[in-house]
Amino acid sequence: MLRLISAAVATTALLTAPALAQDVTSPARETILAPFDIVRTEVKSVGPDVVFRVQVRGKAGELKPKATGQFAGSAVWSYVWPTSLDSGGVGFEGGQGILALAVTFHPDFDDAAYGGVNRHVWHPHWVVLVPDEACGKGALKVRDIPAGTKPKAPATWPGVPLLIDSPSYPTTLATDTVEVSVPAGVIGAVEGVKFDGVTSALKVNANLHAPLLCISDIFDVASGDLSLPGRIGR
Hints:
Elements: H1 2-16, E1 24-25, E2 38-46, E3 49-56, E4 75-82, E5 98-105, E6 123-131, E7 140-142, E8 164-165, E9 171-174, E10 177-183, H2 184-187, E11 194-195, E12 198-204, E13 213-221, E14 230-231
Antiparallel strand pairs: 1-2, 2-3, 3-10, 4-5, 4-12, 5-6, 6-7, 6-8, 9-10, 11-14, 12-13
């Protein structure tokens, strides 16, 4: 009887224990630019926040795209955490594509909430990614908003025709690590949610029409195949 009780207690503990975090580790590769060569990606619940981190082989944020002096054709460089979270979790319509948190730098335009300025700093966004062959075979883009429509969007949507949000989450780039702290209440229950890590370049369409913002180059993918092997835990 004591053995049965002990087994039941152990089983209950396993079922009720918080999910353990599962990071994604990647081999360093000299062929990738060091500030974008991912070696570890992790997302964990830490106190009242969900903390997104990526560690790279070089100095995080050291390299930035050069300014072109115009919006059309300009570049965006990014550190990205694709997730299995639903787009509805941050204020968009549900089921719109891959919801990803991104830290970006783009010197030719501002897309901060409420008309703010953010072109001179690395800053966070939620973006919804979908495939579009117009961006290249197998390529992804930030989902466009059809002309003449008003989307369901978070309060910090910057008003551009894309499914993108511009929250002011604490974001740091120090030595080899990029870190963003998202208040847990923003996205609700996250334990067991899947994630991956990507470093990439995006490009604004020179003709300024859909697709407006395509992923033009992938520097590195933590898993190697965007399989989202990471799991959010504590």
